[in-house]
Amino acid sequence: MANGNRLLLMEKQATIILTLKSNAQEWNISSLAKAAGTTYVHACNFLILCESKGIVSSERHGRIKTIKLTEKGARLAEMVDGIHTIVNEKAQVPQQPGPSM
Question: How far apart (Å, rounded) are the C-alpha atoms in residues 25 and 23?
C-alpha cells in the first residue's frame, strides 16, 4: 500500500479487511497477519475489535479459528476498496489553453 493511503486508513487494518474480502481461501489469524505484514497479536487484537463491532465472524475448527467478513464487513470492505481506488487515481491536470491567434 502506498504512503498516501495512510492519510485515510491505517495500512495494516485496511489490508486485513481487504484480504478477507477475497474469498480465495479460508483465512485464519496467522495467515491474515502474514498477508498484512503484521504480528499475530496485532491482527488478533484488531479482529477481536472487528468481531465485537459485527464486521467479522469467527468459527473454531479444532485449534484453528477461521475468520470471515459479515454482511456489514463486506460493505465496509467495498468502501475501503473504493477509498483506495480514489486515493490511487492519477490526478488529472487541467490542460492550459493554447496561444490565441
Answer: 5
